C-alpha cells in the first residue's frame, strides 16, 4: 500500500475536501496548492500523477492530530470536529469571502431588456462562399505576344 493510497483512504474516511486538507497542512506550516493536492489523488497512470512523499503524509498526519485534538491550550473533541465536516458548506471561490457582491440589489419588478424572453434567439447561419484562390486575381504577363502596334 503506497502513501497515496493511505492519504486517499484517510480523506474518504474523514470526509475531507481539498480545501480542508490544505488548511490542515497549514496548521503545521506546510504549504501546498489545491492543484498539487489533486495530482496526489489522481490514478497512477494519469499524466499529472504525483507520488505522495513521506514528508507530505507525515505533515498531514501531524496537522490532522492538531485539527482533531486541538492544542494543549485549546483542546477539542475529535468527534465534534468530524461532525462539523458534514455540516460545513462547500466553498465555491477562494479568497473572495464566499459571497458575491452585486453593484445594485435585485428587484423583482426590474424589467427584462426588450425582446428578451419573447422568442428564443435564433442565429442565421449562412454558408460561407467558396474561397477563391488568390492567384486567380492576378494577371501574369510574361512578355510574350504582347506587342503593341506603333504607328
TrEMBL record:
PANTHER family (UniProt xref): CYTOPLASMIC PROTEIN, CYTOPLASMIC PROTEIN-RELATED
Source domain of life: Bacteria
Organism: Paenimyroides tangerinum
Biased composition (Basic and acidic residues): 87-113
Pfam families: DUF1456
First and last residue of the signal peptide: none
Region Disordered, residue ranges: 69-151
Organism taxonomic ancestry: Bacteria, Pseudomonadati, Bacteroidota, Flavobacteriia, Flavobacteriales
Protein name: DUF1456 family protein
Amino acid at each position: 500500500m503506497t502513501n497515496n493510497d493511505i492519504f486517499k483512504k484517510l480523506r474518504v474516511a474523514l470526509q475531507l475536501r481539498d480545501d480542508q486538507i490544505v488548511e490542515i497542512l497549514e496548521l503545521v506550516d506546510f504549504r501546498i496548492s489545491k492543484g498539487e493536492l489533486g495530482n496526489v489523488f489522481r490514478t497512477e497512470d494519469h499524466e499529472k500523477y504525483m507520488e505522495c512523499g513521506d514528508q507530505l503524509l507525515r505533515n498531514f498526519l501531524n496537522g490532522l492530530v492538531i485539527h482533531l485534538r486541538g492544542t494543549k491550550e485549546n483542546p477539542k473533541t475529535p468527534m465534534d470536529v468530524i461532525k462539523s465536516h458534514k455540516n460545513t458548506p462547500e466553498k465555491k471561490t477562494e479568497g473572495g469571502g464566499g459571497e458575491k457582491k452585486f453593484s445594485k440589489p435585485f428587484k423583482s419588478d426590474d424589467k427584462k431588456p426588450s425582446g428578451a424572453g419573447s422568442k428564443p434567439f435564433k442565429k442565421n447561419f449562412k454558408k460561407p462562399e467558396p474561397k477563391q484562390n488568390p492567384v486567380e486575381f492576378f494577371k501574369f504577363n510574361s512578355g510574350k505576344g504582347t506587342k503593341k502596334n506603333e504607328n
